[in-house]
Amino acid sequence: MRLDKLLGNLKYGSRSDIKDAVKAGRVTVDGIIASDPGLDVNPETSAVAFDDTPVIYKKWVYLMMNKPQGVVSANEDAVHPTAVGLLKHPYDRFDVSICGRLDLDTEGLLVLTNDGDVLHRIISPKAEVFKTYEVELKHPLGDYSRLERGVQIRDGKEQPFVTLPAQVEPTGERTCLIRIREGKFHQVKRMFEAIGNEVVQLRRTAIGGLVLDPALAPGTYREMSYQEVLRAIG
Ligand code: URA
Question: Can you give the residue range of the structural domain that contains 38?
């Protein structure tokens, strides 16, 4: 791959910015100052540095994040901090997308990747990947059998939508785990609303077999290998 293409893909600037940086001696390849922006480099094996900071190239990145409340599941937002905005070097240089958004006030597991195939496998309604949420309710849980059969809610377009049977596991008088196979707008909140309750706290702990790493404090993330992702989502 050309050096300027590698750096351009990783958002080091426009082609002319990169040309200027190379001409100014700010880029090294295997410890030698590069003079030609068109130099052929092997992105996997050449040690490229920009202003003495190693340039990390990966074709695919898979990140597990513990999204805190108050952070939007988006790449950009005019008002709130975003999940993608929390990423630091080198991950801020990849064009990642979020696999299954969480509401502003929902915490927990987010997967971010630039691998469209994995993204599709996680979010495609056909894949029916179970998402697990810890729920805290305003009122005692009571009879939740309607959630296990399927309940009518409104979808993101405010159209009536009957949910697939969910799995509910009580964990306390006002708390439970719920596993759902869909991801409609505010789905868990709307499901509990449909049975006369209200979600006061929501936290996603798993997507398929991918479980939120307990070592990740809210707002932190870690890279996963492709094998780890595949093992978890099949
Ligand atoms: N269901 C919700 O209501 N909110 C979320 O953030 C995720 C699932």
Answer: 3-54
